[in-house]
Amino acid sequence: MRIPLPAQPVNGGASSPARVFVISGLTAEARFRLPSQLCPRAEEKWDLALLYMGGDELTGEESEPYFVLRRAFDQGAAVAAARIEWEGVFTILANDDEAAESLFAALIAAAGPQEVVREWSEDAMTLDMFRQLLALT
Questions:
Q1: Residue 25: is its pLDDT beyond 60?
Q2: If we measure between CA atoms, which residue out of 67, 63, 54 comes closest to residue 27?
Q3: CA 67, CA 110: separation in Å to the nearest integer?
């Protein structure tokens, strides 16, 4: 199932889709290798790999490191984004369940996922997280 991606409003802020597919859980082995087929493609605007090392020098706020991998499928009609916390907690959000499962298989499956939950969600916080992942540049 696929939900259309939100349109970019004129003011530049991305809106959220009505629903998002979520795969979440934790991994037994919190070490990941980025397979070459998932490396960001320069010609695809949705593809992104971001490693955040934690902390915020400007505000002084403490935050934990995380990794984000965002991948486009079907010429950008479907986008799946994985956020992996340093201790192995992961969340994959997508507007397409097959795209989410593809990203899960390529990135998470080898890390020994546990307590995996798969569901379509309309939760405001989850939709906002997907909107934020789409807005990352």
A1: yes
A2: 67
A3: 16
Q: Is the dihedral of CA 41, 21, 9, 132 positive or negative?
A: negative
The reported pTM is 0.84
Q: How far is CA 91 from CA 12, 55, 81, 105, 116, in A?
A: 25, 21, 8, 13, 10
> Span 79-104, mean pLDDT?
94
Residue 74 is classified by DSSP as T
Residues 6+ apart with CB under 8 A from 89: 24, 25, 26
**What is the C-alpha to C-alpha distance for residues 10 and 109, in angstroms, rounded to an integer?**
39
What tokens were used for 111? 């890390």
Give the pLDDT band of residue 15 (cuts 50, 70, 90): low
Q: Long-range CB contacts (< 8 A, 24+ apart) of 68-74?
A: 68/133, 68/136, 69/34, 69/38, 69/103, 69/107, 70/46, 70/133, 70/134, 70/136, 71/38, 71/46, 71/47, 71/99, 71/103, 72/44, 72/45, 72/46, 72/47, 73/98, 73/99, 73/102, 74/99
The number of beta carbons lying within 10 Å of the beta carbon of residue 129 is 19
Q: What is the mean pLDDT of residues 85-109?
A: 94
